[in-house]
Design a protein that fits this description.
Two copies of one chain form a homodimer.
Chain A lengths: L2 H11 L4 E4 L2 H8 L8 E5 L3 E6 L1 H8 L6 E4 L6 H9 L6 E3 L6 H8 L6 E3 L1 H9 L3 H24 L6 H14 L4 E2 L4 E4 L20 E6 L1 E3 L2 E2 L2 E6 L5 H19 L7 H14 L11 E3 L6 E5 L12 E4 L2 E4 L3 E4 L2 E4 L6 E2 L8
Parallel strand pairs in A: 1-5, 3-4, 5-6
Antiparallel strand pairs in A: 1-2, 2-3, 7-10, 8-9, 9-12, 10-11, 13-14, 15-18, 16-17, 18-19
Helix pairs in contact in A: 4-5, 7-8, 9-10
Chain lengths: ~350, ~350
C-alpha cells in the first residue's frame, strides 16, 4: 500500500476527519513530490487529499498526482491567503502539525472561527521512523557517495592546506558521483577549533599534528547520509591515539546494544558510561545520535533523555565524541540499520586513526 | 551604535518590556553569533539580553558575548524545557516572532499561564531590510564569488555534459574562492525541463540547442548572493534570441525604476506590463524579485502584491522569466542596491545570450 493510503488508513482509524500537512518533508514523504516553495497537503473526509502548490511548483507536482488532487494557488494571491479561503470551509475539528506550522500561520488560518484544532505531530513522524527497503537502499547509496567524500578528504589532509579547500574537494567528489545535494553544511575543522563540535570550516591552513574532524553528508533521492571521521596531520601522538581509541570503543559498545525494543536512552548511556569510567564523560557534550532519513536529524533521537524503544527498520547515527577546550576534539560517526539479530552498519570505512 | 543596542532602543521606544527572539537568523543579525542548534535570545527589562544556547554552541557563543549574557542550557534538559523554566518567570506581556516560532513551542512556552503574547514579527525584519556599508560589502563579495561560478558554468556548457557535472564544477569554483557555503541548492537545468522555474539538476546530459538556466548563489560571512543567467548549447536560434532579449528588456525597464520611495509593486508591474504588451505575461509565473541579505529571500518582496515603498539601502534581486511548457525557460537575475540617484547593480556579468 502506498504511503498516502497508509496515512489515510491511520487517520481514519483514529476517527480524524480533517488533517493539514504543512511540513514540506512530510508532503514529500506522502506524495513523492518535493515542494520548492510553500505548499500544503489537506485531507478532508469529503474531498480526500488536495495538494495546494504555487504556480512555480504546479507543473512538476502534476507529474506526481496519484491518490491526491493538485490544486494551483493563483498568482494573484499568496498561497497562505489562498489556503485561508480553503480552510474557512472546514467547520469541524482539524488536526495540524503543530511543530511545523508557525504560530503566525496558525493564527491566520484558524483564529478567526471556532474550528477546533488538535496536534497531529506524531503521526507522520512515526511512519517515517520505520524505513522500508527502498528507503534503506537510497540511504545506502547516499552513504556510499559520502564515503567517497571522506576518502577524498583523507587524501587531501596535509600541512598547509586550508579547511575550505579540503571541503571543496570532498563536495566536488560527492556531486560528481551523483549527490543530489548536501545533507548539511560540510564541517572540516582542524586544530584546537575541533573542540567545538559545530565549528565552521575556514581558510585556516592545517598544521602538522592537528586533529581534523571531517563531518560530511550528501543527499540522494531525498535521503541523507551523515558520517564523521577524525584524522591527524601526520602521525598521531600518544594522547590523540589513546582518546581516539576510547571514542571508538565507546562507539562499538553502543552499537552492539542496538536492536528492536531496546530503549534509545540505554544506547546513549552505554557509550556515556564507558566514557565516564575513563573520566571523559564531561567532554562528551551532546547526545549519542539521531535518526536519519529525509531529514538529517529525525526520530528516533538516540539520547539519554529518550526512553522510547527503538524500532526495527529505523536508521540511526551513533556518534560519540570528546571535546577538550584548548586541545581539540575527536568524533566518530557511523550509520546503522536497526535489525533483528545484529545491527547492520551501513558505513564501511576503516576506523584506524 | 551596534545592532543589539539599536534593537533595545526600538523596543524601549515602543514600551516593550519582554521580547523573545527565536529565529536563528535574527539572533545572528543581532549578536553576530550564528547558532548551529536551537537557540533563543531573550530580552527582559530587568535582566537585559540573555542568549540561551546548547552546550554544543556555548564555547563559540561566548566569543561573541557583548551587550548580552550567554547562558548554557544544561545537557540534562532539552533547550526548550530549559527555556520553559526561564519563561515561567515572566508575568507581564511578551513580544514574540510569531512567524519564527512553531505553534507547538508557542503552546509549550505560553499556554500554561496568563502571560499576554503579542506579535513582534516586523521589528527585526524592518531593521534587516536596510543594509549598512559592511553588509553591502559582504553581499558584494558573495556576488563576486558567485559570478566566478557562473563563468565556470558557462565554460562547461557543452553537448554531452550532465547538469550535475556542471553544478559540481561551479560549486567547486565557489568554495575554492572562499564561499562559506551555498545560499541555496544550485539549479542548473537544460532543455524543456527549464520551463519549470525550480526544477532540480539531474544526471541528464545536455543536447545541442538546449536552453540552460544557471541559477546559483554562495554565502559569504553570512550574506547570500543569488544570480541567474540563461545560456544555449551552441548557437541560439531565432526564437530563443527573441525571447531572451524580451526578458532582458523587461529586466532593464524594471531596474531603471528602482529608487527609494517607489512602491515594490510598481517595479514588478513595470516588467510584467512590458511582457504583457508582447503577449508573454502569462508565461511569467512568479513575482519579480526579493530582498537579499542573511537570507536568500527576505524583505522587501518585489511583488505586484507588495504596495510598500522600497527603502534606501535595501538589496534586491530582479529576475523576470518566461517559462513555456514543452519549449523551455529563460530567466535573468541581477542584484541591485536601492540608492539615491541611480540603482546600483552589483552584478557585472555580460548579458548577451
Amino acid at each position: 500500500m502506498n504511503r498516502i493510503s497508509r496515512f489515510k488508513r491511520i487517520i481514519e482509524e483514529k476517527g480524524i476527519k480533517n488533517f493539514l500537512v504543512s511540513s514540506p518533508i512530510s508532503i514529500y514523504y506522502l506524495t513523492g513530490f518535493p515542494p520548492t516553495t510553500e505548499a500544503y497537503l489537506l485531507y478532508t473526509e469529503n474531498d480526500g487529499f488536495e495538494l495546494h502548490v504555487t504556480e512555480i511548483d504546479y507543473l512538476e507536482a502534476k507529474n506526481f498526482e496519484k491518490n491526491f488532487t493538485v490544486i494551483k494557488s493563483p498568482l494573484e494571491l499568496t498561497i497562505s491567503d489562498h489556503m485561508k479561503r480553503r480552510l474557512e470551509k472546514i467547520k469541524e475539528e482539524i488536526f495540524l502539525e503543530y511543530s511545523h506550522l508557525s504560530h503566525f500561520l496558525f493564527n491566520k488560518f484558524f483564529n478567526y472561527n471556532n474550528v477546533k484544532c488538535e496536534n497531529g505531530d506524531g503521526l507522520i513522524t512515526s511512519m517515517r521512523e520505520v524505513k522500508d527497503a527502498s528507503e534503506i537502499e537510497k540511504i545506502t547509496k547516499a552513504v556510499k557517495i559520502t564515503e567517497k567524500g571522506i576518502l577524498t578528504a583523507q587524501k587531501n589532509i596535509c600541512e598547509g592546506k586550508a579547511e575550505l579547500e579540503i571541503a571543496a574537494e570532498t563536495e566536488y567528489e560527492m556531486r560528481r558521483n551523483g549527490a543530489e545535494w548536501f545533507a548539511f553544511e560540510s564541517l572540516i575543522v582542524a586544530g584546537v577549533r575541533s573542540a567545538n563540535p559545530h565549528a565552521k570550516s575556514t581558510m585556516n591552513k592545517l598544521n602538522k599534528g592537528d586533529l581534523v574532524i571531517v563531518d560530511i553528508g550528501c543527499r540522494y533521492e531525498g535521503y541523507c547520509a551523515d558520517i564523521t571521521r577524525t584524522f591527524t596531520v601526520g602521525e598521531a601522538d600518544t594522547r590523540q591515539r589513546e582518546l581516539y581509541n576510547l571514542v571508538r570503543e565507546a562507539q562499538e559498545h553502543a552499537i552492539e546494544k542496538i536492536k528492536p525494543g531496546v530503549k534509545a536512552s540505554y544506547i546513549d548511556l552505554t557509550a556515556r558510561e564507558y566514557l565516564r569510567e575513563k573520566g571523559y564523560d564531561k567532554y562528551f557534550i551532546h547526545t549519542l545520535g539521531h535518526g536519519l532519513g529525509l531529514e538529517t536529524h529525525e526520530a528516533p533521537s538516540i539520547s539519554f533523555r529518550n526512553n522510547s524503544d527503538i524500532k526495527q527498520g529505523s536508521v540511526v547515527t551513533i556518534e560519540p565524541g570528546v571535546y577538550i577546550p584548548g586541545w581539540g576534539g575527536i568524533r566518530i560517526e557511523d550509520i546503522i540499520v536497526v535489525d533483528e539479530g545484529k545491527p547492520r552498519v551501513l558505513t564501511n570505512l576503516p576506523k584506524a586513526i
